[in-house]
From TrEMBL:
InterPro entries: ABC-2_transporter-like. This is ABC transporter permease. Keywords: Membrane, Transmembrane, Transmembrane helix. It comes from the Bacteria. Signal peptide: none annotated. The keyword Transmembrane applies. It comes from Cohnella herbarum. The keyword Transmembrane helix applies. PANTHER family: SLR1174 PROTEIN, SLR1174 PROTEIN-RELATED. The chain crosses the membrane at residues 33-51, 71-90, 111-129, 149-178, 185-203, 237-260.
Length: 272
């Protein structure tokens, strides 16, 4: 029992150390941050113009329970979560192509745990920076975010949302162990997140038959849940959505573990 406990403690220390180093490493790339923030401001400005036209500039009009202010802040939250995800698939693909994966696999740390610690450290910093930048333009055009406990709902569901996004990206990234090139699969995953994940518009605005399909897929738990909870806080729904996120994390976690075990036996590393 003590040996098992010591093994888990050692694994946690390695994971947290990698996470801390990655977090500090991010501050060295200020230009990259500035470019992403500029892109976020541009995208949100376009969305504000489009939705203002759809609402005829009426701040009291509701579409599927969303006022113009709700809609713009909803988009701020989905964009902050989407842009928070680091390019995990391309990193794994590059490791396989140049042979670095062979070095990663013999290190005394789980390959998946290593990438999770790097991913989560980067994603957390990016999420809060993008949330701050996105809030500045939304506040300017539609007013202050008076969502009360909605902020608690956003933060409570965002950790699970980022974890589910990591597991989905890891499933695609691990396919590089077989095919090396995963950009096509990543393209499909990204577009599914944009549409039926609720990034471009709330799932409430979609046809009822499509909403029923979305309810059986993990994409809404990664974007729609936290953003909608922020603008429409509901404690009962929050508990239900947290439970759905945990179920998806367990299910996708088993899928990642299974794919990783199969992939390692098929892997042909390149490089010297």
């Amino acid at each position: 029992m003590s040996g098992e406990s010591s093994r888990w403690t050692s694994s946690w220390r390695k994971t947290s150390a990698v996470g801390r180093i990655t977090f500090r490493h991010q501050f060295a790339y200020k230009t990259d941050f500035l470019l992403r923030c500029f892109f976020l401001l541009f995208i949100l400005y376009v969305f504000i113009q489009l939705w203002s036209a759809a609402y005829d500039g009426n701040y009291t009009k509701e579409i599927a329970g969303f006022t113009l202010k709700h809609m713009i802040w909803y988009l701020v939250f989905t964009e902050a979560l989407t842009l928070a995800a680091p390019p995990l698939c391309s990193r794994i693909e590059e490791e396989v192509k140049n042979g670095d994966v062979a070095i990663r696999l013999i290190r005394p740390q789980s390959y998946v745990a290593y990438h999770f610690s790097v991913y989560f450290s980067e994603a957390l910093l990016r999420f809060f920076v993008h949330l701050l930048v996105g809030s500045s333009i939304a506040w300017t055009f539609v007013g202050a975010p008076t969502f009360g406990f909605g902020w608690f709902g956003l933060l409570a569901l965002s950790a699970g949302a980022l974890t589910i996004t990591f597991l989905l990206l890891m499933l695609v990234g691990l396919c590089a162990f077989w095919v090396e090139e995963t950009s096509g699969l990543y393209f499909v995953l990204q577009k599914l997140q944009f549409t039926i994940g609720g990034m471009l518009l709330p799932i409430d605005l979609m046809p009822e038959w499509l909403q029923r399909i979305c309810a059986w897929l993990p994409f809404q738990a990664a974007l729609y849940f936290p953003a909608r909870m922020a603008v429409h806080y509901d404690p009962t729904l929050l508990a239900q959505q947290l439970g759905i996120q945990v179920a998806w994390i367990i299910g996708l976690g088993f899928a990642v573990a299974w794919l990783y075990r199969r992939g390692v036996t098929k892997l042909h590393a390149n490089g010297g």
